[in-house]
Design a protein that fits this description.
Largest sheet: none
Number of strands: 0
Structural class: mainly alpha
Number of helices: 7
CATH topology of the domain at 88-167: Serine Threonine Protein Phosphatase 5, Tetratricopeptide repeat
CATH class of the domain at 88-167: Mainly Alpha
Length: 172
Amino acid sequence: MDRLDIISISLIVLLTALITGMVALHGEEQEQTTQGTALGSGAARSAKAARSAEQNIYGEVERLIKLGQYEEAGQVLSKIMDQYPQRLESQVYLAVIYERQGNIEKAISLCRSSIEKNPDLVDLASANLSEMIQKDIPKLKREKELKPNDERVSNMLRDLYFCQRKFGQGCE
């Protein structure tokens, strides 16, 4: 064998060893990535489950409202408000309870304040309170005609119009 053959064979062996080492490293890296993804997806799943559980905290309240058990719904909601004071959705549900119990003034006030604090609640409020607006605006207009100087009626009407605009129903 001449010198050129020895160098060629040595280079082939060296390149083969180098490629084998690179393939082995790539395999380990891919395995770690797969494990990391599996761990990450497990963490993502548990985070998603936690978010889902947090979003479903109002399920019992909604069920009780549908059953007309407003007192019980208020008690459950009170516990939720203690546990999650930052959740402004609670104000919308409380407004629904007040509205169903006939306390329109508190319902309207809570509807407006919850939308002002978090405009993202418009859809939730609209879904639950748009009927109230349709029903109560004509009533309050008549009451305003009978008591033109009653500031309470004026404030309720103003707040209802605010909510109506936010719900995208236009103002009369």
